[in-house]
């Protein structure tokens, strides 16, 4: 290869790939550590060790602990999945998922643990609040549409989070008659929350 420019590109590409892989590994390690230990108890050196990287690289790619936390939080809570929710089946599918074990979808449970950890730290709660508004409540409000969508989205989110806490504490799937009743009643709750009509008092 006699083209100097081509030679430079060939030599640069492996470094770029390595940098991208290292950054991704650091971000993945950060999500794990923050979910398990929370913001205050997580150290950058522990994240770097889990990622197999030098702690200086964490600072180079993310700037510091707070910026890394925010990136990890953003990476954990995307809003794209809301577009795929089918109104006709949503309430029953959500109720069925909530009746299952939290270990049936470890990624979802991991994201929720991250959210809980972030919510309980005075340092990260304000960051979480901004992200929830942008990536969770806003998209739910838009998906629900109609009258009082803002308030309905808030009740919807609070109910969903409450059911996720119950499932996390329960730690296993519901079975038999209890599962059947749970799914029917939770599906009815979500169907009501999706409706524009006020629930009967």
Describe the structure.
This protein folds into two domains: 4-73, Arc Repressor Mutant, subunit A (Orthogonal Bundle), CATH 1.10.10.60; 80-194, no CATH class. Helix content is 77%, strand content 0%. The protein has helices at 4-41, 44-51, 55-62, 65-76, 87-99, 106-119, 125-144, 149-170, 176-194. Helix 1 packs across helix 4 (65-76), helix 1 crosses helix 6 and helix 5 (87-99) runs antiparallel to helix 9 (176-194). The longest helix is centred in the N-terminal third of the chain and has 38 residues, at 4-41. The mean pLDDT is 82.
Task: Name its key features.
single chain
What is the structure about, briefly put?
By secondary structure, this protein is mostly helical.
Total number of distinct structural domains: 2
Helical content band: over 70%
Query: Alpha-carbon distance between the termini?
Result: 78 Å
- The tally of strands reads 0
Percent strand equals: under 5%
Overall mean pLDDT stands at 82
- Provide a count of the helices: 9
Order of helices and strands: HHHHHHHHH
Q: Give the overall form.
A: globular
Q: Nearest-angstrom radius of gyration?
A: 21 Å
Structural class: mainly alpha
The parts where pLDDT drops under 50 for at least 5 residues are none
What does the main sheet amount to? none
Q: Give the quaternary arrangement of the chains.
A: single chain
Write the layout of secondary structure elements.
Layout: H1 4-41, H2 44-51, H3 55-62, H4 65-76, H5 87-99, H6 106-119, H7 125-144, H8 149-170, H9 176-194
Helix pairs in contact: 1-2, 1-4, 1-6, 5-9, 7-8
């Amino acid at each position: 290869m006699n083209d100097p420019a081509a030679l430079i590109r060939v030599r640069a590409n492996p470094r770029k790939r390595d940098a991208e892989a290292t950054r991704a590994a650091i971000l993945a390690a950060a999500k794990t550590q923050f979910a398990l230990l929370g913001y205050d108890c997580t150290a950058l050196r522990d994240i770097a060790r889990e990622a197999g990287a030098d702690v200086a690289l964490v600072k180079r790619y993310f700037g510091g602990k707070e910026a890394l936390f925010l990136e990890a939080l953003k990476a954990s809570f995307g809003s794209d999945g809301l577009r795929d929710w089918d109104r006709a089946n949503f309430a029953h599918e959500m109720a069925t998922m909530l009746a299952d074990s939290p270990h049936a979808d470890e990624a979802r449970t991991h994201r929720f643990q991250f959210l809980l950890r972030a919510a309980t730290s005075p340092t990260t709660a304000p960051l979480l609040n901004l992200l929830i508004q942008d990536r969770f409540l806003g998209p739910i409000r838009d998906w629900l549409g109609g009258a009082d969508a803002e308030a309905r989205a808030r009740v919807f989110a609070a109910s969903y989070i409450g059911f996720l806490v119950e499932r996390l504490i329960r730690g296993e799937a519901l079975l038999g008659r209890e599962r059947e009743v749970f799914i029917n009643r939770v599906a009815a709750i979500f169907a009501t929350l999706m409706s524009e009509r006020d629930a009967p008092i």
